[in-house]
Specification:
It is built from 9 helices and 7 strands. The protein is of the alpha/beta class and about 260 residues long. It has a domain at about 10-145 and about 170-200 and about 250-255: Rossmann fold (3-Layer(aba) Sandwich), CATH 3.40.50. The chain has a 7-stranded mixed β-sheet, with helices on both faces. Helix 2 (about 55-60) links the parallel strand 1 (about 40-45) and strand 2. Helix 5 (about 150-165) crosses helix 9 (about 220-240) and helix 7 packs antiparallel against helix 9. The chain starts with about 25 loop residues before the first helix and ends with a strand.
Length: about 260
């Protein structure tokens, strides 16, 4: 069995401040299947987590396999599936060493995964290996306003970590991975799967940050000092950690065929 993942303990409450609005995961599924154009594609969800994106595929009876390194996250996916949907096919595995043969899947989903990966090139290369020749590698992520509350909090967090010597913490991995993939892909297509209005608070960002993959890997003393300073800054800047900001959000997919 793999070593414990930092996500294991956080799994039961992981989606509490990360859940997509009602109907959005279903729209993401429809957009993915529509872009693929296949009758019944075999889909691998790499970094399936608790099933935030995968549940609609399972409910619909699609040919879906979810993979995650965290056994705790997969157990939560399975637990939530018992009462309302068929049993999902879930596999605990390292994304850099997938237990599947070459050319197994019609699509591999990397949704909100690239930015947290320690080695995104290894992840992408292994995902490509499992794709059918005409298959699609699909990146997905939520898009928030460039000047929104989360963006301001991220910028301040990066500054505080830089003062502690963690200078590259918020280097945008996706901003590097996407051009790299575009340069190698035969085709690249962007699709906006859904749009909605979200309510964000500084407190919500702080809670989400504590269970983020990259932040969890930092030394405990660095995490504690940074969160304390970020909390103080947010309270002084926004008046209260509970101050709510209504923003337009979207979910964007990018399909690569090689």
């Amino acid at each position: 069995m793999s070593d414990a993942s930092p996500y294991d303990a956080a799994a039961p409450s992981f989606d509490q401040h990360r859940a997509l609005p009602q109907g959005v995961p279903e729209k993401i599924r429809v957009a993915i299947l529509g872009a693929l154009g296949a009758t019944r594609p075999r889909v691998l969800d790499l970094g399936a987590g608790t099933g935030r994106i995968g549940r609609p595929f399972v409910v619909a009876g699609d040919d879906y396999v979810g993979v995650d390194l965290s056994l705790g996250m997969l157990r939560e996916f399975a637990r939530r599936s018992r009462q309302s949907m068929p049993t999902p096919r879930l596999v605990q595995a390292d994304g850099g060493r997938l237990p599947f043969r070459d050319a197994t899947f019609d699509a591999v989903l990397l949704v909100q995964v690239i930015g947290a990966a320690q080695s995104w090139r290894t992840l992408v290369t292994e995902a490509q290996r499992t794709l059918q020749p005409a298959g699609a590698l699909i990146l997905g992520h939520a898009v928030a306003p460039a000047a929104g509350i989360d963006a301001q909090m991220k910028q301040r967090l990066a500054s505080l970590l830089g003062e502690l010597g963690v200078s590259s913490y918020h280097m945008e991995t996706r901003g590097v991975a996407q051009p790299w993939l575009e340069a190698r892909a035969r085709t690249s297509t962007r699709v906006t799967a859904a749009e909605w209005t979200a309510e964000r608070t500084p407190e919500g960002f702080l809670i989400r940050q504590q269970t983020g993959a990259r932040f969890s890997r930092l030394p405990e003393a660095v995490r504690a000092a940074t969160l304390r300073k970020l909390t103080e800054w947010a309270g002084a800047t926004f008046g209260s950690l509970d101050t709510a900001f209504r923003e337009r959000h979207a979910f964007e997919l990018q399909l690569f065929k090689f």
